[in-house]
Sequence to fold (227 residues):
Amino acid sequence: SAVISQKPSRDICQRGTSLTIQCQVDSQVTMMFWYRQQPGQSLTLIATANQGSEATYESGFVIDKFPISRPNLTFSTLTVSNMSPEDSSIYLCSVAPDTYNEQFFGPGTRLTVL
Amino acid sequence: KQEVTQIPAALSVPEGENLVLNCSFTDSAIYNLQWFRQDPGKGLTSLLLIQSSQREQTSGRLNASLDKSSGRSTLYIAASQPGDSATYLCAARIVNYGQNFVFGPGTRLSVLP
Fold:
């Protein structure tokens, strides 16, 4: 299994500002994912972040709005840029050691944009 | 479009009852299917992972089955307890979706004491 931590756990931000969320894993993993969970909804994949390559974004998500860094095999950041109230969500990072293994999640970052 | 659905959307049962949660996926070409539990405002806790070649997995009072040909998985919870109250999500890792997971909308379970 993998233990994942996220910072911050929650934040309240003003419209137009940006927030960077950190995700730290206790072991080296190739595949890391960022998800958004809007209030009352299920999880939507934002992007896949593999070390050493550019993040791959899903339809509806763009790098200018959600830039991602993956400097090494245990760490990643997601920035939510130029925030609006519609960005209020829980943001979750997850890892999967490989295609056939479980996916493990961090505790999430609860973001409220005023 | 890859799609995962879950039935029912919500379920309320008295303590001690056995119950079944259902998950359906449109693309039968999957690597595996995973069941999660999510408590309000929290992250996801992995419950069970079933590989595409397996029929079922068990952990304590939980049993998950997989019928890949029909695109269905069920999560069976025996002797439910109030502590089982949470939202249960299934996620299919789909071959034709870049090895990514597609999540269902979840089943919100309430177990009444």
Notes: Chain A has a mean pLDDT of 92. The longest strand of chain A covers residues 43-50. The radius of gyration of chain A is 13 Å. The CA atoms of residues 57 and 105 of chain A lie 19 Å apart.
